[in-house]
Write a structure and sequence with these properties.
By secondary structure, the chain is of the alpha+beta class. It has a domain of about 80 residues. About 35% of the residues lie in helices and about 25% in strands. Strands 3-2-1-4-5 form a five-stranded antiparallel β-sheet. The longest helix has 30 residues.
């Protein structure tokens, strides 16, 4: 026996929720996408050899008493670096780690950077061909930009999915008479 196809009425509340989720997802998607593209453009910038003058990993901690049953401390790493490099006949000093990182660093990556780039070592950096004062130790899209892009994409696609399902009439769990419309097989 084939089930009888029935036209369901669209769920307006679910459609509004899906639209709002898509609009809210567009914010981190747009910001992260822009920062990721601008970071990817640094892969084509000219390279120079830089001397690391100072490098430190700062371990920041906070008490985690109110989070879960455990307690203890929660921490994250921040990497600060200064390096000198020469472009043409002029010397420059910079401290950029990742381009367009929005002030956020990957804690695990920051913890490893001190080992990879100790003071006195040399490293390949990239610098802006139009303004050599802008330089980065790790070219390419930053982890923060990629995270914002992924979060925005997931939110937007979830909103699109919720809106699509709401147009099919799904999501009316609490509407009057919903349980009576369930077909018994």
């Amino acid at each position: 026996m084939a089930r009888k196809a029935r036209k369901r009425t669209p769920n307006r509340g679910g459609m509004a929720f899906g639209r709002n989720l898509m609009v809210l997802g567009a914010l981190p998607l747009g910001l992260g996408g822009y920062c990721a593209i601008m970071g990817a453009l640094t892969l084509n910038w000219p390279r120079a050899t830089a001397a690391i003058t100072s490098a430190e990993t700062i371990r920041q901690t906070t008490n985690a008493e109110n989070r879960g049953a455990g307690g203890g401390q929660e921490g994250w790493n921040t990497f600060r670096v200064l390096y000198t490099y020469r472009v043409g006949e002029r010397d420059y000093v910079a401290g950029g780690v990742e381009p367009y990182d929005l002030g956020m660093q990957n804690s695990a990556s920051a913890g490893n950077m001190r080992v990879l780039h100790p003071p006195g070592s040399s490293a390949k950096i990239v610098h802006d061909p139009r303004n050599p004062e802008i330089a980065y130790l790790k070219p390419g899209p930053s982890s923060a930009a990629l995270a914002f892009t992924a979060i925005g994409l997931i939110m937007s696609l979830s909103g699109f999915w919720a809106r699509r399902k709401a147009t099919e009439g799904l999501g009316e769990m609490n509407a009057e008479g919903t349980t009576e419309r369930i077909e018994r097989a």
